[in-house]
Amino acid sequence: MPDDPFPGLTGLPRLRAIMARLRDPETGCPWDIEQDFASIAPYTIEEAHEVADAIAREAWDELEGELGDLLLQVVYHAQMAEEAGHFDFDRVAQRIADKMVARHPHVFGDESRDKSAAQQTRDWEAVKAAERAARAETGVLDGVALGLPALTRAVKLQTRAARVGFDWPEAGDVLEKIAEEARELTEARDRLGVAEIAEEFGDLMFVMANLARHLGVDPEAALRSANAKFMRRFNAVEAALDARGKTPQDSDLAEMDALWEAAKRAERGG
């Protein structure tokens, strides 16, 4: 391992100095020098998901490293912004600090802390609405980030619309809409082309996200959990086949389905 290039620095100052060196046009890393906001953005999203994954798995030993990877993304973007003359890391930190103070008058101001979580949420949304208005974002749906995961963005769009009364009254109405969209998807599959099928599938997914909102379910978290469950059960199928001296390629659907059901029963203690 090379000698520490910044022996007098620790923590965040050291990380920022390392990033500045990596981006140095004369002595930095060629790959890091070539990057820009657009090329780094996908890594930022990926690192955020890896943080969420470590939390979902309660992998606390991994979370430390994943948070570091995510922090690196903030430092990376701030370094590029400083080079371009937009802003620097200190301004990023100052801006979020100011925002937290402004959005918590019951902690840092004169407002009472004697509020329910629901009231605090309403107050928070009122402050955010004022901030959007100051940015000339006057539409109900303005400001919902395009870069969010599609399911999360769908819920945020629907939540905004619901605040002005554009919403189904209850979950049963959403379930009826799901049945309608499923029928339309079936018709598209039988009669229409790929583009129309994709559109109908998107409509169905959008309504599914709305059902999650009505049920108080985070659709991204629910799907991550379903993915993890699928992996556990399919791994169990592979293990059972291996015990028989086989691989999935040597098996067939009937055998694997029977092993899948056995894995389900085992999980449920049956």
From TrEMBL:
Q: Which NCBIfam families match?
A: mazG, PRK09562.1
What name has this protein been given in UniProt?
Nucleoside triphosphate pyrophosphohydrolase
The cross-references to InterPro entries, in alphabetical order and at most eight, read: MazG-like_dom, NTP-PPase_MazG-like_C, NTP-PPase_MazG-like_N, NTP_PyrPHydrolase_MazG, PRib-ATP_PPHydrolase-like
Which ranges carry the NTP pyrophosphohydrolase MazG-like domain?
Answer: 35-108
Q: What is its EC number?
A: 3.6.1.8
Entry similarity comment: Belongs to the nucleoside triphosphate pyrophosphohydrolase family.
Annotated source species: Rhodosalinus sediminis
Q: Which GO terms describe its biological process?
A: dATP catabolic process; dGTP catabolic process; dTTP catabolic process; dUTP catabolic process; response to stress; TTP catabolic process; UTP catabolic process
Signal peptide positions (record): none
- GO molecular function terms listed in the Swiss-Prot or TrEMBL record: ATP diphosphatase activity
Keyword DNA-binding annotated: no
UniProt keywords (A-Z) are:
Hydrolase
A Pfam short name:
MazG
Isomerase as a keyword of this entry, yes or no, is no
Q: Which reaction does it catalyse?
A: ATP + H2O = AMP + diphosphate + H(+)
